[in-house]
């Protein structure tokens, strides 16, 4: 009967998504342990045990139940919150316009495991001993070793989202490749990609709205939940007001600009390395290096680039955290949002500085024959780019190795106690932290940037990335369910600041692709030649190739006698002139009139392309509503039914018209709605 009453209270009317699945809400058993603390057994025989007991006593004082199990090397402490804590949580988050009094008589609502874990984790992290030590302080001193929520017993490999797992959207997993697909369709394709990026985000927003309704999170407020958890942890908690400091913002801006300049400087250091490595390998005493100079430069350059990205990623994360601490955000969600912006900005320049150099600078600052730009007056700069692809070690290898090592460890140590066996199995899994899913999101943002910002240079990147993701998304499921400890679940209505990051990347992609087409490809010079200098303008014959003579037209003439030391140039006595890619006029070799005309056309094209593409993006964003009409109508219906229900109860109290009629169907189930929404790790 309890289950039937729960189904009646929670299911909405009509054919829409159910607000709650019965299977995801497990009744709270008296011995259901959702969270475990781990300590080494030697802490039970030294002074650290006193600090350990003080921390556990603080948890007991806050109505937490603790169970101790010890094996040969480790001591496990199972943590479970009392029912009174969940009742207080539900009371604090009940909306004023929520359920009517008759709903209070319903059967007690089971508390989802995700809610239990979230509450326990928050209190454990915020609890302090009498000496002011937090759990993290005790871990640093070796009092505890680890903390983690438990996977559900018998949890199978994910054919879909799992309770408390990752609901993130995998988009692209492909490392950047630089290859020029230079043809007349590039402009159309670039505009199409700008349109696709917008439609993609709009479809994502529509799906998000459906999921939010499905999980009953439309009125959910993350800040409100955090305040409720603070009050549960400490009834004397004082509200932290919003604050802003122009001085702090100025300091953060200056430090961020310094870091961005450092990222750009690192890209230039890589350029210098490739120049020096090329000269070193060319003059090497080893014969095989002289024949494989390009290969050696590419391989060592890619290795240096990869190591640089790894090192700068760690530095960027540390700097972004320090900047957030200096800014003193009010809540965890606000801190997470600001950290996301800081870290992504630094990572963007770390990953893309080299590509920006290759796309827009490489080969354009080299001077001309007879007066080439040299590093320290000795070594010539690169004129063409060498293919480089750097990225993390392939995840399938890591997954396979970790899976085998975990199975081998379990085979050697199998406790007889099933509860201890389950806790130990969870302990042996790979540890996770607050950055585990954050790193996944960051990786996707960088990949999304690779496949949109430079798509005009490599149109196959999205297709190859799609094939890669079809494999990668399954590997992530294996990693999160079988190989990693359970992530702490969080309720969220959207992906937060990451959506703004995606929209920013979409705008940057329009600008970058416009500049690639205008300045990197041959599209503009060919079009100008075709309509200004081509033989088609002189001959009416349609069979004439309008680009005939374009190559010679795009080459400038250099007289060998103008070399600074022509006698040292081998074969110069037999060659009087040569051709090179540029628009210059001898004898002073300044830029020609044609160069300035092409530059004006290129700038005009960039402005026109960006305005057209951005207008198309805005029209597409307006044309595709963020929220489907079915979702809006469902929310409207719930509000209407809630008002009718309140009106009926008001007339009942006043004895007015319609007092004897049947009450309308409740628009919202009961206080269970606080617990009914599924949770997602963000």
Commentary on this structure:
The protein is of the alpha+beta class and 682 residues long. The protein has a domain of 104 residues. 54% of the residues lie in helices and 7% in strands. The chain is built from 21 helices and twelve strands. The strands form five sheets. A four-stranded antiparallel beta sheet has the order 2-3-1-4, sandwiched between helices. A two-stranded antiparallel sheet has the order 5-6. It has a two-stranded antiparallel ribbon with strand order 7-8. A hairpin with a 3-residue loop joins strand 2 and strand 3. Helix 6 packs antiparallel against helix 16, helix 10 runs antiparallel to helix 11 and helix 11 packs parallel to helix 14. It is globular. The N terminus and C terminus are likely disordered.
Please specify the SSE layout and strand pairing.
Layout: H1 2-10, E1 35-40, H2 48-61, E2 64-70, E3 74-81, H3 83-92, H4 113-126, H5 135-140, E4 146-149, H6 185-214, H7 222-233, H8 246-282, H9 287-291, H10 293-327, H11 332-360, E5 367-368, E6 371-372, E7 374-375, E8 379-380, H12 395-412, H13 418-428, H14 436-453, H15 461-483, H16 497-520, H17 523-532, H18 550-553, E9 555-559, E10 577-581, E11 584-585, E12 590-591, H19 593-623, H20 629-654, H21 673-676
Antiparallel strand pairs: 1-3, 1-4, 2-3, 5-6, 7-8, 9-10, 11-12
Helix pairs in contact: 4-7, 6-16, 6-19, 8-10, 8-11, 10-11, 11-14, 11-16, 12-15, 14-16, 16-19
């Amino acid at each position: 009967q309890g289950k039937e009453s729960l189904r009646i209270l929670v299911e909405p009317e009509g054919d829409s998504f159910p607000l709650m699945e019965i299977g995801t809400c497990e009744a709270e058993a008296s011995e259901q342990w959702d969270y475990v603390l781990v300590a080494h057994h030697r802490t039970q025989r030294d002074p650290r045990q006193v600090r350990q007991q003080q921390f556990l006593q603080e948890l007991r004082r806050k109505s937490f139940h603790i169970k101790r199990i010890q094996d040969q090397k480790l001591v496990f402490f199972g943590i479970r919150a009392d029912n009174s804590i969940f009742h207080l949580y539900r009371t604090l988050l009940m909306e004023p316009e929520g359920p009517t009094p008759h709903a209070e008589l319903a059967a007690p609502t089971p508390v989802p495991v995700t809610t239990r874990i979230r509450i326990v984790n928050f209190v454990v992290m915020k609890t302090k001993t009498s000496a002011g030590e937090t759990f993290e302080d005790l871990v640093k001193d070796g009092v505890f070793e680890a903390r983690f929520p438990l996977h559900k017993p018998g949890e199978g490999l994910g054919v879909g989202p799992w309770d408390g797992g990752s609901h993130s959207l995998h988009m692209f997993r492909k490392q950047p490749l630089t290859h020029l697909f230079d043809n007349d369709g590039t402009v159309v394709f670039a505009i199409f990609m700008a349109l696709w990026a917008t439609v993609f985000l709009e479809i994502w927003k529509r799906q998000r709205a459906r999921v939010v309704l499905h999980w009953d999170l439309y009125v959910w407020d993350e800040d409100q939940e955090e305040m409720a958890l603070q009050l549960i942890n400490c009834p004397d908690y004082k509200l932290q007001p919003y604050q802003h400091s122009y001085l702090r913002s100025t300091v953060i801006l200056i430090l961020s600009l310094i870091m961005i300049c450092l990222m750009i400087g690192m890209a230039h250091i890589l350029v210098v390395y490739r120049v020096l490595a090329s000269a070193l390998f060319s003059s090497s005493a080893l014969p095989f290096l002289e024949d494989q100079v390009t290969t050696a430069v590419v391989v060592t350059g890619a290795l240096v680039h990869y190591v640089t990205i790894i090192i700068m990623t760690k530095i960027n994360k540390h700097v972004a955290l320090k900047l957030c601490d200096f800014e003193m955000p009010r809540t965890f969600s606000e801190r997470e949002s600001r950290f996301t912006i800081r870290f992504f900005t630094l990572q963007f320049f770390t990953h893309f500085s080299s590509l920006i150099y290759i796309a827009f600078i490489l080969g354009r600052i080299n001077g001309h024959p007879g007066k080439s730009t040299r590093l320290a007056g000795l070594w010539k700069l690169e004129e063409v780019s060498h293919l480089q692809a750097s990225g993390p070690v392939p995840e399938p290898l890591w997954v396979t190795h970790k899976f085998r090592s975990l199975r081998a460890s379990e085979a050697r140590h199998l406790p007889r106690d099933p509860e201890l066996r389950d806790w130990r199995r969870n302990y042996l899994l790979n540890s996770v932290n607050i950055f585990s899913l954050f790193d996944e999101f960051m990786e996707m943002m960088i990949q999304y940037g690779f496949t949109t910002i430079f798509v005009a240079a490599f149109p196959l990147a999205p297709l190859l990335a799609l094939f890669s993701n079809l494999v990668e998304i399954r590997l992530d499921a294996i990693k999160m369910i079988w190989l990693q400890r359970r992530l702490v679940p969080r309720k969220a209505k959207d992906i937060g600041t990451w959506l703004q990051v995606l929209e920013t990347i979409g705008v940057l992609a329009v600008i970058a692709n416009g500049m690639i087409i205008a300045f990197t490809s041959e599209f503009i010079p060919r079009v100008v030649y075709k309509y200004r200098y081509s033989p088609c303008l002189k001959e009416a014959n349609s069979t004439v190739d309008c680009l005939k003579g374009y190559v010679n037209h795009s080459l400038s003439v250099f007289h060998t006698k103008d070399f600074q030391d022509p006698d040292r140039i081998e074969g110069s006595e037999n060659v009087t002139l040569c051709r090179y890619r540029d628009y210059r006029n001898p004898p002073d070799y300044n830029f020609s009139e044609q160069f300035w005309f092409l530059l004006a056309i290129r700038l005009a094209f960039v402005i026109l392309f960006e305005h057209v593409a951005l207008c198309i993006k805005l029209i597409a964003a307006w044309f595709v509503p963020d929220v489907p009409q079915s979702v809006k109508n469902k929310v409207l219906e719930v509000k209407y039914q809630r008002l009718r229900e309140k009106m009926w109860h008001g007339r009942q109290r006043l004895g007015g018209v319609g007092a004897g009629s049947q009450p309308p169907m409740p628009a919202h189930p009961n206080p269970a709605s606080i617990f009914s929404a599924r949770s997602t790790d963000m």
